[in-house]
Structure prediction request, 234 residues.
Amino acid sequence: VLLMRFKASLPSYKQIEVELNPGRTVKDLKRLVCEKLGIEPELTKLLFRGKSLSENARLAKLKGTEEPVIVDYLWARHLLLWGADGQRTIRSATVLLAGAGAIGNEVAKNLALLGVGRIYIVDRDNVEFSNISRMIFFEPADLGKIKAEVLAKNIHRKFPYVETIAYRGDLERMPLKLYLDSDVIICGLDNVVSRIYLSQICRKYSIPMVDGGITGLNARVHVYIPPDDACPIC
Prediction:
């Protein structure tokens, strides 16, 4: 069987060549290209001369061209920073986000933009009117609703490739499994008692913690990687 050679370029990152029967489809080409690049085909589109290729189209239509097919991957720019292996690590990560307020909204958004696979969102409060001017995922229709649930729902709706799980209640009452499942805990609470509790959990079970707080124009971020770092309470 005569095979055709195809060039595929993920701009500024990598260009590869693959061989396929011209009777195969663009979908087959995408699957093979993504396998070689180590990226998810369901989050990738192939472009040719600036236009998206139909996945059902036969590869014979590309015959005779030396131009590469462009790989448009959702996190293509991230690969310039940490490569496909780093992005796979992020995709497989679970983050526990303590607090669904102003910090929590921004952190959840940025975790989703990075492609973090799962986010546990924990908060015991309801959406208030004064939240709306500072928290991008809350709207007037959400007044009185549970913050954690609203944030989890809206993050998943905008970023469906991220699993979001909401928990309403005190951190001290959360199942231990929730913490042990997490690769990192991010805290954006103004509750000192809960922050002390999180520090103890992180120290005891060697879970990295990022603790942040804002008052007016003052902000502080503390990264705690047990056992050697000074914990936020220290």
Notes: The CA atoms of residues 124 and 180 lie 21 Å apart. The mean pLDDT is 94. The radius of gyration is 22 Å.
